[in-house]
Structures are given as structure tokens and as C-alpha cells.
Amino acid sequence: MTAVADKPRAITSRTDPRFEVVLYKHVGVEGAHTLAYYRQHGGYEALKKALTGMKPAEVTDEVKRSGLRGRGGAGFPTGVKWSFMPPVDGRQRFIVCNADESEPGSFKDRYIMEDDPHQLLEGMAIAGYAIGATKGVLYIRGEYYRAYERLREAIAEARAEGLLGRDLFGSGFDFDVILHRGAGAYICGEETALMNSFEGLRANPRLKPPFPAQAGVYGLPTTINNVESLASVVHIISRGADWFAAMGTEDSKGTKLYQLSGPAVRPGVYELPMGATFRELIFDLGGGVTEPVKALIPGGSSTPMLPFTDDVLDTPMDYGAIVKKGSMLGTGGVILIPRDKCIVNATWNLVRFYAHESCGKCTPCREGISGWMTKMYQKLVAGLGEAGDLELIEMMAENIKGKAFCPLADACLGPVLSSIAHFRDEYEYLIAHGRPMYTRSSWWKDA
Fold first, then answer.
1. What is the distance between the alpha carbons of residues 425 and 143, in angstroms, rounded to a whole number?
2. Is 70 exceeded by the pLDDT of residue 298?
């Protein structure tokens, strides 16, 4: 287990004998971002093993057997995703790393890129070999400038030592990485919008099908994976699928980077085996809470919030168990909401985020989220709510759900519908009295 404070150099490590540190083993260690340090600790040996001792299909099969599922939010099996690529036919192919980490509550990938960038580059090269891609695109969030600089330096180091470029380890396999900074748009976390942005087009999502494996970057076969997913590949190839699959639960294998924010004693990033409970994360490792808490968001801002009850706290943090509670694992970004924070205002903060980040391409999101939903919450937080407003919001949400061009609108509806379902009394109080049930701040007076 490793915890990381959300400050560039205020990174602290705390160990717990119950849990093995894998992805974050070198995070926070001075000099860990350099190639010399990485090679001293076994770096690029997994790539060498894959290139000199395994066929591409064997690498894919090993990742399939490991049970690794995408760590970017969707949780789709990584090896299966790789197998969607068409047979090699001479066309250029791409492996794209989605490092546009912009989900509120998510900050795990940042520290891999800042403190262990070669781990990510090695994972990209292994993935490229598995799918027959000689080009990698690393699309990084524009605001992550320190991570961008570290990756730029790491790519230069790897090229200088022949670890990127032509004929890696004498295998005949060529692979190089293009590093591309985004410009601050959350929508670029959607894989097809990301590809459009990389190509110099407006960052609007594309219609699927065709899927990226058939027509991705520049219309060529492309696979897109998350930072944490690609970093995990290094250790699967190095230590084997059985080792990875031995950690976690039946449907969720390996370790996972969980982020804890809000009124926790020790907020940060914790690497735990999949299936550890919210209670273990928040109380055993996070040190508990600094004030009473009434709700948590389990996987970043797009996942439905849950009440802070014993039943929820004892829920395993894996893909299946959280779905049974009515939410999703998402990115693993656990956000705690204090008891005296108005839930309507907390939800309004999220609605504003999604309304601002909507690309405006489709009517359900442009008019439904940036338009009607925004106006309804502005009305509520101004103390002007009326009888029937909640029913109107619920009706609007049901008519938006599943009808937008990409998942952004549905991401906004998660916290909206769940906050009404679990904390309807706060909404009704605000409508009836024109002020929030909890007056932690004077926000409502100035809304």
C-alpha cells in the first residue's frame, strides 16, 4: 500500500504488510523517474522477455489469462480488447495511451507519469508488440505539465539507449512513442474525441461503429488503453498471469489504485488488491474521517453516490460488488461528502462541471445538461424551487439517459439521480424553505 498526497513533491509512502505494492513501488522515490534507476530495478526486462521469448499472440493470451480489466473506468478485459485488432495487413497500427486524466476525484495516473514514466513506456511497447503496432500515441492532459516534462525526458532517454526506435533488443520489432499534450478539454477522455483532438480536429466524439480497432487514428487500426492498465501489463509479463490473477476477486483481478479525497485524515492514492472494502480504504489506511460523512462517490464524479452506511463501507471495491449497490467502480476515485454539506449544492457543482465540459455536439447533452438541467439546479440553489421540480428533473434525466452521442450526459445523470434517490429529504427541504437543510456556507444567499 502506498499513499500519495496531492502535492507535486509532498509524496509520502506508508507500508502495510497485508498488501504488496506493485504499480506504486517506486512512486515518491528520489530519482525513480530516470532510466538509470528504472534499469537498476529490472526495468525493460519484461519488454525483453516479450520480444525475445514470446509471440505477439502469446503476450495477448497472457494478458487475457491474468484477468486484467481496463482501469480507466469501463472495466473491459484488456486482452480481449487487444484481440479485436484485425490481422496484420501492412497498414500502420497504433497503440494509444489515454492519459487525459480529468475526472474529478481521479489523480492516480499523474504519479505514475511523474515518478515512474518508464513503467508506462515499457507497457506501451509491450502492448504495441502484442497488437502489431509500431507507433504509440501518449495523449496527456494539458494541465499535467510536470508529468509531460518527465515523459518527454523519459522518451529521449529510451531512444538514446535503443529501448524505443528500431529493432528493439535485436528482435526486429520497431516501436516509438509520440507524446501529445491536450488543451484542457474533459471530453478528450472519451477515446474517439481524443483521436480527433490528436489529429488536429475538433474534439467531438465519433459515431461507433466503426470502433477504433477497425478505424481509429487516421482511420487506421488502433487500440486505446489507460495509464494504469498499461503499467499493469509490465508486471503481468514479468511475473506471469497466475501471479496477477491470484490477487483480487473472482471478476476483478490484480491490484488497483484507489484515490481518497474529501474529509479523510490521510487523503491520497492507495494501491490495494481488488476487492478491498471501502472501510479498509477509508479507516484502516486513510486514518478515518475528520468530520461526520453522509455520502461517498465510489469511482470519480461520474459514478452514482452512495450513502455512508455500514453496508456500503463493507462492500468490496470491485467491478461487480459496487454495481450491486447501485453504482460503479469507475476510476476508483472515492470522494467523501461531509454530513453538513448541502447535497443539492454538491450535486450542482458536478452538474456545472459536466455542463461546462459538454462539447455541444448532440441535442440531449447540449440542451438537456447544459440547458435544462443547469437551469433547474440554478433555480434550486437560488431557493426558488417549486413543487414538482424533482419530478421534472427525474423525467428530464430519464429522457436524456442513453440518448446522447457519448457517455458524458449519462455521467452527469449518475450523481443527479443518486443524490435525489438517497437524499430526497434535502431537496424537499430546500424547495419548501428556500434555504438548505445544512448551512455550512452562505453559498445559497449569493446563488
1. 38
2. yes
